Amino acid sequence: MQPQFLFMVVLSAFVSTGRGQQSLMEYMERRIVLLEERLTQWHDQSSRQSAELREFKNKVLTMLENIDKDKDAWRNEMENTNIRVERLEREVDYLETQNPAPPCVEVDEKLTELQLNKAQKKKKEKYEKLTDCSDAISQVTAMKILKRFGSTSGLWTKDPLATSDKIYIFDGTGNDTVYVYPRMRDFTLASTRKAARVKLPYPWIGTGHVVYGGHLYYIRQQNEFQVIKFDLSNKTVVDSAVFPVEQQVPVYGLSSFNYIDIAADEEGLWAIYATKENEKNICLAKIDPLTLGIEQMWDTPCPIENAETAFVVCGAVYVVYNAKLPSRSRVQCIFDASGTMPGEDLPLVYFPKRYGAHSSMKYNPKEKQIYAWDDGYQIIYKLGMKAKEES
């Protein structure tokens, strides 16, 4: 006989008796009571957990509200701090204007007898001006940050004698490829993929190069420093010349990569340099753009220490100084090769503090503005000009 059939027979006999029915009912009641207790426990636990979740949600919402309030408070605090910093910078500008440090300019009394004798021997008395240029910088009237491009050091410039608006970009302090953009807007909006590339026959050194009259004048270092004249239209070297100075040293104390800085102004081309013979002060030379010959040379009273760059305007070199920990750049030394700029009451020109230190400043005499490279940012400074007065 099968076990399942035997079990069914026994269960039927048990249920058929009254005692069996009573036992089954009691068993079912116990099971139902047990289920009800479990349902009650589950309900209690569910209610408790729901209450805890609601409490946690309320706490989170409160915390988020507090975070939003703190965020608004921090934002307001930062805005107030920025306003105070800007106000402080304006006050510092005013104080610097009212109480400027004594500018380092050409003053005969400040030159030693040895320097005077040396200057006379080298026939460096005064520079015969080529034009009637009589402009001097009075202040920086505006600043425009174009973009951030390339390395922390470099230069960008335009050809002041050209009719086109081409922009020339020299990325880094040693390279052999110049990026050329057809106009300012293209440089601002486009990447290097949209730029034309000019491959130079020799790599450049430093950031002291200019584009002038369709030619690139740049510095090359082999055994000696050379000035290379490169025709940008047919991509050929037109001329080159060894710079006729021995034992050169970096011309700017804060820009050790520059030994010669070529500058262009209303008068033509200039070279700003330094030598071991006169290692404390910056020197200036007038360059013939056709032959690369040196027309005249001067020892300026402008210190090399803490200088970061320089530029020339109407035959006067303006040396820009900073600090080893970058602060506000300022023109603190002016040397006028023609001697027409008076030695007193010369304004100190301050540049707005932005990122770091300028690796180059290229003056454009046609636009009366400076193309600067500040820690990888390309900046334009608009200059306010005034007439020179005879000393």
From TrEMBL:
Belongs to the OLFML3 family. SMART domains: OLF. Residues 132-387 form the Olfactomedin-like domain. Pfam families: OLF. It comes from the Eukaryota. One of its GO terms (biological process) is signal transduction. This is Olfactomedin-like protein 3. Keywords: Coiled coil, Developmental protein, Disulfide bond, Glycoprotein, Secreted, Signal. It is found in: Secreted. It comes from Microcaecilia unicolor. Residues 1-20 form the signal peptide. The gene is OLFML3. InterPro entries: Gal_Oxase/kelch_b-propeller, Olfac-like_dom, Olfactomedin-like_domain. Residues 64-124 form a coiled coil. The keyword Secreted applies. One of its GO terms (cellular component) is extracellular space.
